[in-house]
Sequence to fold (340 residues):
Amino acid sequence: MINRKYKPDFNQLLKVLRREKPDRPVLFEYFTNGPLNEYLAGHKAADPDDLEEVISITIEAFTNAGYDYVTIPARFYNALKFTTATHDQKSTVSQNEGFMITDRATFNAYQWPDPGKGDFDLFNRAASQLCEGMKFIAPGPGGVLENVIDLVGFERLCYMLYEDEQLVQDIFDAVGSRLLRFYEIVSSLEHVGALIVNDDWGFKTQTMLDPDSMHCYLFPWHKKIVEAIHLNGKPAILHSCGNLESVMDFLIDELRYDAKHSWEDTICPVEKGWQRWGDRIAILGGIDMDFLVRSTPVGIHQRAVNLLRLTGSKGYALGSGNSIPAFVPTENYLAMISAI
Fold:
């Protein structure tokens, strides 16, 4: 267990998201793992299957670690789950398995979820546990492209782009419209301060789909989602892995995301990303996952300190390049956040 040295203040993160300089360094993390949350909270969950108790532990963990917000992953408010055949309960999955839609008939037969039926009052019930000054940040239940690939399969989607463009359009519209409704609802909630639109668009060398296809099928839904979030006065954070070089200007200037999260040294080190785009979009996290796992606590701490010195925290919040899964050594994570 650790104890923070300053009071929570979500306005400090808001300054970062507005590309301003906060009054002090700020932490940002997409999510942290259960055992780490129990360590940070100083006790275990009495019932790990009780989702509201897990949320309570998560709130304590984020509070003690020094965050100004708490992330509630979408699995805790199962408002919108796109059912696939074999993806559940797997730590890794192939992008070519678990598909449910192969043609027009299977598209028509698919049981689409209703985003309006989620237990969104969860935020109100959990808000009483937040320290004064804190807010929730809510990610979505997967992204538009991620869910389309889960439903169709990546390889099959590539063929479908040439064989049945109308079906591709209809699938993207079916997924995108439901995610849009999800973000309309969640961004309107009082205790939610910002939204994460989590949708992996690329891999090491390029985007998953060619830019023309992304502009045709994917980006119109992201534009609507960001507009809906902004309409409720909240910032929109893009969490997207992969090489987005070919679409970075578009996501900044046209989609108008407030912040970009997920950075990888082999694609674009966060230091370079902040120097290149930090005057146009907030840069979050970036301590590379491989570095965070395999480097020493001393090396991790020094890189984090150097990042804070480079950026002056203007439009930058410190955190990992992706998230803190269970394989990240606790001492390495603590070395990173102690830099603030």
Remarks:
- The chain has a mean pLDDT of 93.
- The chain is about 45% helix and 10% strand.
- The domain at 10-337 is CATH 3.20.20.210 (TIM Barrel).
- The longest helix spans residues 165-186.
